Amino acid sequence: MGAAEPPAAVRFSAVVRRFGKVTAVDGLDLELPPGRPVALLGRNGAGKSTTLSLLLGLDRPDSGAVRVFGRAPGRAVRDGLVGAMLQEASGVSRVTVREVVSMAAAAAPRPMAAGAAMELAGVAELGARRVDRLSGGQQQRVRFALAVVGDPRLLVLDEPTAALDAAARRSFWESLRAFADRGRTVLFSTHYIEEADDNADRIVVIDRGRIVAAGSGSHIKRSVGGRLVSLDLDGTEPHRWAELPGVLSVTVHGDRLHLRSADSDATVRALAATGAVRGLEVSPARLEDAFLDLTSAKTGPEGETR
Question: From what superkingdom does this record's organism come (predicted)?
Answer without folding.
Answer: Bacteria
